[in-house]
Amino acid sequence: MRDGSARGCRSAFAGSWDVRGHQCRIAWLGSLRPPRPGPGRPMMTTALLPPSAPGGLPLLGHLPALARDPLGFFLGLRAHGPVVRIGLGTRVAYVLTEPELVRRVHVSEQHRFDKGGALIEKVRDYAGNGLATCPAADHAVQRPLMQPAFQRDRLVGYGTVVRDAIEEVTGEWTHGRVVDLSVEMHRLTTLVTSRTLVAADRGAPAAGRIAEGLPDITRGMYWRMVVPGKVFPRIPLQVNRRFDEQTARTRAAVDAVVEQYRADPADRGDLLSAVLAACEEDPDPRRAVYDQVITLLTAGVETAASAMTWTLRAVDGAPEVRDRIVEEAVGVLGGRVPAHADLASLGHAQRAVTEALRLRPPVWLVSRCATEDVDWPEGRIPAGADVFFSPYALHRDEAVFPEPEVFDPGRWAAERVTAAQRGGFFGFGAGRRKCIGDALAVNEVTAVVAAVLSRFRLVHREPGLATTTTRMLLMPSATWVRVERR
């Protein structure tokens, strides 16, 4: 399977090739022309082509604008139509700007799109063929095998790990101490992820070392994804050197931990035990295990840490929201750290997490590859084209989310939330490829928010939301706070 997916959609230039039985084609950007007509392909008239975003430059396309302000760039595309063509170097890509079109890609017409294209192939060079990056055919096999690791009984056990990690990290917060909240949350999620992934004492330190290298890896993956061609990774830039170093260390560390587990194959009730069981029939089990471990680490450490920091920053700027969360958490917890059974009673904290994920979704950019010509009233997308959508931009559609820039957790209350808002929220994706660990992530972030706010006052040096987009994930900048015990 992996060999077939690797052949698909690699070229950044005009051409065609086979990927899983689909004939993929990509056009030159130069004049933003559609592919030439051929057997089985009708002429695509200019009237049916989606509009092109303004400001593209010869050979560079929209890469300069994307480098300057990626969030603003994707946010501004809605003004040009529901489907908009952009140039990534000499390559044409298509951006969807309306939630309904993204629902088609995720649900009703998912058979016409797949994980692939020249961009996702670059990510696979590091992340491999795990759940987050594999083509649909592989996903149909992998997902059922991995699902038992995220069933309710496992989530209860993981809740104990989360509780212990919260105690360990916040236990060092003496009254008046100044900490970088983004660093502390990264430390916390590293503990949680390494311990839920690897229960064995000998393997946990290695899992922690892997997690520590993820910031350099995700930064390198982002630039490999958006910069066209194969030359960029060979340029001796700091981002490339760190990416290569951390990738080599990660592969070695994963191999070492897996060998320990295979020497004693008992089910330890952790994620790695589930991964090993799921991958034992794979033609290349060593690579399959590595791919899934990297997927779980990236989601469990970077994504969760980002969500925690964004939520705590957003709540700090909304005193009424903060007071409701604190009152609820104090009443439910009485000063202790939440257990899994407490989470259902922490509705204010959970809605704050959802709203923070709407405003600052860690996964801010998603891509697919069209596996056939897609003829929509909103415009045609040729087979083989890269298709993008940005949850960050989609979550700011005023028709779906009134006053989209306002942090309003109450919009998710049962009496207020609308079907359009539920369908327009893509914090964890949708359809068959919705994040397998969404419940675990929400539980973890909710527990942290409730525990921190009910036990500490956080005095921010710079209130409000800061943004950095130098990685594949939307990560907060340094968030310095003075912690004061309640």
UniProtKB/TrEMBL annotation:
* Source organism superkingdom: Bacteria
- InterPro entries for this protein: Cyt_P450, Cyt_P450_CS, Cyt_P450_E_grp-I, Cyt_P450_sf, Cytochrome_P450_Monoox
Under the heading Pfam families, the entry gives:
p450
Sorted alphabetically, which CDD domains does this protein's record hold?
CYP170A1-like
State the organism named in the record: Actinosynnema pretiosum
Provide the alphabetized UniProt keywords.
Heme, Iron, Metal-binding, Monooxygenase, Oxidoreductase
Tell me which PANTHER family the record gives.
Answer: BIFUNCTIONAL ALBAFLAVENONE MONOOXYGENASE_TERPENE SYNTHASE (PTHR24291:SF50), CYTOCHROME P450 FAMILY 4 (PTHR24291)
Annotated binding of heme, by residue: C435
Its cofactor is: heme
Protein name stated in the entry: Cytochrome P450
One GO molecular function term of this record is: monooxygenase activity
Q: Which family does it belong to?
A: Belongs to the cytochrome P450 family.
